[in-house]
Amino acid sequence: MDAHRPSGHPGELASPPSPALPPLVPGSRSLRALLPESYRQGDFVDRFIAGFDDTLAPVITALDCLGAHLSARTAPDDFLTWMLRWSDTELPACVGTTGRRNALLLGRRLHGLRGTRAGLELLVRDVLGARLEISESGTTHYSHGPEEHPAPEGGARVRIRVLLPYGSTARAGVAEDLEDLVREWVPVHVTASVAVLDDVDPLSAAPSGSGR
């Protein structure tokens, strides 16, 4: 008896059908769309090129979205620190994503005001999301020559308080990192004391309800 079953026998196992290729979209970046029609007789070349399409798709997508990757509003979070380094802006790890995006958006304006009260207010308000309190002693000193009357010790002083949203300083290292950051934005000739504190608890600051 012949061991081979004739073709089309009811018991013969049929080969599984090949998966259908996605349709070509006019104007798409698929390599299949670039092939001349003479090379696309049958489905072998289409299926062979489809493997390259799957491999190159992430690269093409990244290139198509390159503008969004380099925009401060839409860049991925891990791009923000890298982009800040272009302007030599070093922010501690405790500064959140919103603050980093704002630092990029402010860019030239923020650095142009560095070393001034306006620049410090901009940094604290828009980048750190905090409130700033500055008090100055108001001391002045002058002389007619460089060595006649040296500046007395304990002269003009500035007291800076950065008030973060309540509970922010509970995380280890936050206060110390932000103090160092603020000191970098204070004019070098100014003696300043910097304190980073929690702002008032909004629940405790809320007025109690009056009796009826």
- The total of helices stands at 7
Extended strand count: 3
CA gyration radius, whole angstroms = 33 Å
Shape: elongated
Task: Describe the secondary-structure layout.
Layout: H1 44-64, H2 66-69, H3 77-84, H4 97-112, H5 117-127, E1 131-136, E2 157-164, H6 174-184, E3 191-198, H7 202-205
Parallel strand pairs: 2-3
Antiparallel strand pairs: 1-2
Helix pairs in contact: 3-4, 4-5
Summarize the structure.
The chain is an alpha+beta fold and 212 residues long. The protein is built from seven helices and three strands, in the order H-H-H-H-H-E-E-H-E-H. The protein has helices at residues 44-64, 66-69, 77-84, 97-112, 117-127, 174-184, 202-205; strands at 131-136, 157-164, 191-198.
Protein described:
The protein has 212 residues and is an alpha+beta fold. Helix content is 35%, strand content 10%. It has 7 helices and 3 strands; from the N terminus they run αααααββαβα. It has helices at 44-64, 66-69, 77-84, 97-112, 117-127, 174-184, 202-205, and strands at 131-136, 157-164, 191-198. Strand 2, helix 6 (174-184) and strand 3 (191-198) form a beta-alpha-beta unit. The longest helix has 21 residues, at 44-64. The chain is elongated and about 90 Å long. The model has no long low-confidence stretch (mean pLDDT 79).
